[in-house]
Amino acid sequence: MRQLLAAWLMVDPADLPMNPRLIGKPGVGKTTLAYAAGARLNREIYIMQATVDTRPEDLIVTPVIEGERKLRYVASPLVTAMLRGGVAILDEGNRMSEKSWASLAPLLDTRRYVESITAGIKIKAHPNFRIVATMNDDASTFDLPEYIQSRLQPQILIDFPDRDEELQILKENLPFGEDDILRYVTDFLQQAHANEERYSARDGINIARYAMKLRKASDSALPVREALHLAILETVGGEALRYVPRT
How far apart are alpha carbons 188 and 181 in whole angstroms? Predict the structure, then answer.
C-alpha cells in the first residue's frame, strides 16, 4: 500500500499525482488493496469495470432518454470521481481496447481532462482526483500501447500479501471487525496462499463479515470459531476448510 500511496502523493504544488497500475495474478487482492488505499485517503471511491466491450463513451458519459424528447447524460464512475475529487479504480484495465484507452490519454498526462464527443463537453479532473488501474497478468488481455504504458506509471507488481499486510487490509475494510475474527481469517488466508490457493483478501473480507453477522444474529451465543467455520463453508466452500487454523 505504501507504494501506491506514494505514487498518489504530491510533493510540491506544481507536482502532479502519478497513475499507477497494479499487476498480479487473479485473486491476489489488487482491487481490495486499491480500495483500502483510497479509504486511507478518506476519499470517495469509484470502481469502473473494464471489459473487452468497453467503448470510449462508456468511460465518460452515457446518454439516457427520459420521457418525451428529453435526453440527459449520466456520468460514468470514472468521471464522477474526477468531478468529486475521488479515487477511481479502473479494474482489469488490460481487458480494454486501445481505442478506449486512447480516450483517456489526456486524463493520464498533464492535461488531466477527458472529452465526450457525444455530449460535446470537456471535463477537467478535480485536483484531488486519483486513479489506479488493476491488471491481471494472464494471457486473455490486450497489450497496452506504449503511449498508455508511459502514462500508467509506476508499475507495481502485487503478490499475495504477507500476514501483517493482509491483516491491515482486513482492518482497513472492516474497521468495526472483531480482532479475533480478523486474525483468524488472516491465518486462514495465509495458509491458503502457502498452498497456492487463490482465496483473496476479498474472500477474507466476506468471510469475516459473514461470521460477524452470524454472531450478531445469535446475540453472540454462537462461538467465534463455530461462526468462522460456518462462514468459510458457506462463503468459499467446503474444500477451503482444510486451511482453517488449528489453534
Answer: 11
